[in-house]
Amino acid sequence: MKTFYIPLLASALLAAACGQGAQQFDIDNTKPVTPDNRVIYQMNIGAFTPEGTFAAAGRQLGRLDTLGADILWLMPIYPRGHKMNSPYASMDFTKVNPAYGTADDLKGFVGEAHRRGMKVWLDWVPNHVAVENRWVAEHPEFFTKDAHGRMIHPHGWGDVYELNYHDEGLVEAMNSAMRQWISVADVDGFRCDYVSSPTIPVKYWQDIIAELNSHGKTIEFLGETDISNPENRRIDSCGFDYDYAWDFQGELARKFNDSDNADSLRAICDRLLAASAKVKNKRMVYLTNHDQNYNDGGNTLKDFYGDNRYLLTVLEFTFHGMPLIYQGQEIGDPDTLNYFTDAKVKWHLADRKMLNTVRTLVALHHTFASLSATAPVEYIETAGSQVLAYRRGPVVVALNLGREPAAVQLSGIEAGIYQQWLDSRTIGSGPAMADVKLAPQSAIRLQGKGYAVYVKKQ
């Protein structure tokens, strides 16, 4: 089959132009300077290519390698229940969705990712399975029951039944399936769905995470919850490597569609830092994923964040945590994707300003250890209510939430020569770098809803 979107996206990737005094520079194919400088990429195999297969997605890994994806989170790859065709309603955790290919095809995909230095995490759905799953008839003891002995639909989700982790047979069946994918396909980790479920004991996670990491290969775990939330603090002892900065994204989505209030944004950022200091794990930060993009009526980046979507993308990659790219986010998230039907990403609708911004930000995040997941943040005073600025080591970031241009003094920065990595005024034409002289008393100009990133030269 033709992968018709490749030339269109490639032309966007190769487009570059230099502003006055700027030089074109190569920001592709970078690798993280530390493991804490990685970027995670969420992919639905069925949506990522027109073919919707492991083989076709594997042929696109060079493009993701060029972008700089370090971890590939694959949405559920298992056969689906037919009632709603949800990828989160598994028929069999030991098999792959035949529409995607075979287990050998998955193994080939993982092998190609490894050859390029990328890790692969599977989406794991421990709380429930499809109502058509063979366990319903063969192992009714695997399921929780109500007072009348009926299997439970968690949250009223009518296409799934809830699993019973007090049954040793169920625990072993689930653990065996996880071991299988490590052994057969050499996967590197799991994004675990709904880990805040009250029916999954903390001890279960403690045991399986420790066990899977006891055989010589590091297996990483991302938990789908905000562990900093007081309701989920029990999960802090489970051993997850990452959780979702869920409350952070929720606040941004509710308040920053068109806001120009930098103080409000700083307060949200402060709450992220305070919450992160309370948990043992690192955080995954995100502006969108499959839930935000499709569920609850569907919301693209533009729907959620309006013209702030570009500068908030800069914030995502430079402020705190490990940034997530949801498939298509790098081209501007042009449409909602029904993941029940594996609706295809519209790669031909690439927003070059967003694409070039993301490309540059990935390279920046990879290159400077001061942008690692937990490195400190220092705010810079700007004397403007619409501009948020901060420093992480040699990296200086300025975001103008206002609609009008702003001349901003970055009080307290060290005077010297800086490399300007990112300028919202020119990035649509392509990545370009310029040396600029900055001092606390000198002003930088930011366009309305604009952004700039500088790195002090040693």
TrEMBL record:
* GO biological process terms on file: oligosaccharide catabolic process
Which InterPro entries does the entry mention?
Answer: GH, GH13_cat_dom
Q: From the Swiss-Prot or TrEMBL record, give the protein name.
A: Glycosyl hydrolase family 13 catalytic domain-containing protein
Every Glycosyl hydrolase family 13 catalytic domain range: 42-365
| SMART domains (UniProt xref) | Aamy
Please state the span of the N-terminal signal peptide per the UniProt entry. Answer: 1-22
Q: Does the keyword Cell division apply?
A: no
What keywords sit in the KW lines?
Answer: Signal
The species this protein belongs to is: Marseilla massiliensis
Q: Could you state a single Gene Ontology molecular function term?
A: alpha-amylase activity
